[in-house]
Amino acid sequence: MTKIKWTTTKRYQPYTQWPQARLDEIKTRIKQSQWRLGYHIQPTTGLLNDPNGFSYFNGQWHLFYQSFPYGAVHGLKSWVHLVADDLVHWQNLGTALTADSPLDAQGVYSGSAIPVDDQLFLMYTGNVRDQDWVRHPRQNGAWMTADNRIEKLSQPLINEPAPRITEHFRDPQILKHAGMYYALLGAQYDDQTGHVVVYRAPVVTGPWTYQDELTFSTEKLGYMVECPNLVFIDERPVLIFCPQGVAGSVLATDNVYPNAYVIGERFDWDHLAFVNPSPLQNLDDGFDVYATQAFNAPDGRALAVSWIGLPDTTYPSDVEDWANCLSVVKELTLVDGQLRQRPVVENQQLRQASLTMATMTQALPRQSELQVTVPANQQGKLSILTNLDQQTGLVINIDTVHGKLVVDRALAGRPVATDYGTTRAVAIEPGQPLTGQLLLDNSVFELYLNDGQQVLTGRIFPPSQHWALNLDQLTADVQGWRLDTLNKD
């Protein structure tokens, strides 16, 4: 494999200057990887990051993701286009948006999509740098036809940020309300504080005019807010966003960057404000969730998908020139005013064969689903053994007596981001039973507790092809299924 020194010039080299042999080399190495995923969306080559343009159009679900195909680094970004009939079986249609115009010359950054008449409108941030490498963000538009042909607009929708906003101005979410279009954007003010700002337009192609800052918290939100997404569940507003640099006193997190949410009693469109917003809360209490994108689907559901990966984080698969994946699609609901996240019901199509759970240590497929019920007054461990010789792996410490659950990936395989710790803990209701849904897929786990009240997601990079489930001092009812392999690369 050709080793590349990733200078800035190399990272932003136009795709036309890369030889096909580079992609062929990466694909050859990927074929030998034991960490590739069976049913999660992953990059064909290179790096995957933010999900974008999640929408329903022309009888299909559409989803894009940011991509740099030539290595596991953040370089010149494009969008890859996926479609599905069922939110599970995604077909990769290839690169959809590339950095091929003066409006996005240094990368097609994150954005969203909305159906307009018989076309899908895409709104995204174009990364533009001048000769001194100073960023000049553009908010751009493109039309996609029913046969998935995309044509970019020749002029930006928003040419430059409003006063006070720095070069950090990106990730538009486009919405429609009362005949008007709205765009929520992550922004940094010139005092180095993070905010969400709102633009409005009478038609989707503009003119877009600055309205105001979105009011959803009285707390300081760090130095930048990325990836704002506003959805409505039972008519209540839920804002999902990424407050970079937020203080631990505002949002307790062990991750380098958090993904948070706020719930309001209602949304005041006249003042662009949440009424009685909740405190900031972590969307995912695990290790590796960021840049979640959500939208209100036409079937009435609020759907979301997350990047399983974090900025400024190195993963073991980087040496194979690929990195990161997306979560399964999740449905968001409110129960007694609390947010719940569950894999969409369509995900049950992946179930192939039931697993017999007859002993305390049971062989386990690396693509599997476990449904676990732990009675009250239990203290013990549920482990996914990834090294059978040493009896080590992913450990879930469960204490329903005192109300605590801890996920420990320290001995699950190759180390990941150990500077930020190897455990993640959540409080559960003491003296009550616990239910959990655990999705496993080679180098990813997604753990949903108590019907999605809490979620912990993370990457693991195990040394072995052979896994086992082990219960240690824990009485639990476990049902399991082997899950289908959808990815064929």
TrEMBL record:
Residues 40-343 form the Glycosyl hydrolase family 32 N-terminal domain. Its EC number is 3.2.1.26. Keywords: Carbohydrate metabolism, Cytoplasm, Glycosidase, Hydrolase. Its main location: cytoplasm. It is found in: Cytoplasm. SMART domains: Glyco_32. GO terms for cellular component: cytoplasm. It is an enzyme of class 3 (hydrolase). SUPFAM superfamilies: Arabinanase/levansucrase/invertase, Concanavalin A-like lectins/glucanases. One of its GO terms (biological process) is sucrose metabolic process. It catalyses: Hydrolysis of terminal non-reducing beta-D-fructofuranoside residues in beta-D-fructofuranosides. Pathway: Glycan biosynthesis; sucrose metabolism. InterPro entries: ConA-like_dom_sf, GH32_Enzymes, Glyco_hydro_32, Glyco_hydro_32_AS, Glyco_hydro_32_N, Glyco_hydro_beta-prop_sf, Suc6P_hydrolase. It holds the Pfam family Glyco_hydro_32N. GO terms for molecular function: beta-fructofuranosidase activity. Signal peptide: none annotated. Belongs to the glycosyl hydrolase 32 family. Enables the bacterium to metabolize sucrose as a sole carbon source. This is Sucrose-6-phosphate hydrolase. It comes from Lactiplantibacillus fabifermentans T30PCM01.
